[in-house]
Fold these 2 entries.
Entry 1:
Amino acid sequence: MAKKVVATLKKEGGVKYAKVIKAVKNPTTGAYTFKEEIVLQDEAQAALKN
């Protein structure tokens, strides 16, 4: 599955995508979880701010 996603992200002539991985801290336990999103490359910075 991961190879298929990477292959489609690198397609030439298409829209460029970026995979954004954020560490989110749970306020009650203090543990971190990771949230993954695939967004347009132009919107990657905005996705990290949220």
Note: The two ends are 27 Å apart (CA to CA).
Entry 2:
Amino acid sequence: MNIAELAEAVLELEDDKAIAMVKQSIEEGMNAREVLENGVLAGLKEIGKRFQNKEYFLAELTMGADLVDQCMAILEPHLPVAEGPKRGVVVIGAVQGDLHSIGYGLVQKQLELAGYEVHEVGINCPSMKFIDKAKEVNADIIGLSAFLVTTIPYCDEVINYLKDMGTRDKYKVIIGGTECNHEVAAAMGADGFAPDASEAVKLCDKLLGHA
């Protein structure tokens, strides 16, 4: 089974082919983490790029996310369990108005592989949903995904709610998404911005003193 071909099948939304290839990789005893990162998630990342370039739209994003979920269900039992104590607890999701999980889905999987406990709150989430979940699971970090210019203000809203509640210092707040950058993060008082999943893991490690 060729991992590059798997990534291409995910990118082209060829469900039957991609799922068959993932099953084949398990049968052949391939490294499940490599298959996930270099095949499934690599294809998902390219789907995100096509969306940014307006070659794919919301329908394709949704199809891609569903395909990755199916592949993940096959790979999950074969993925290595992170050794040692958990590195931290993260609540992650897409802010209100953002209707897909492509960006934070990549981050979630990479954080879990790195040893973080991650709680997903879904898409189109009201600001208080992040905060309520963070309180419930005693989170260290709140991760906000905002792919659209129109939804970035909801990241700011989460931070302002935390300030109003007197709990801003309890959580690190990080943001990500196509229209986000370091300047946007600094302007709203977020603790950091990550342009992709691997950088998000590094950012979380840095914020929690693991780097």
Note: The chain has a mean pLDDT of 92.
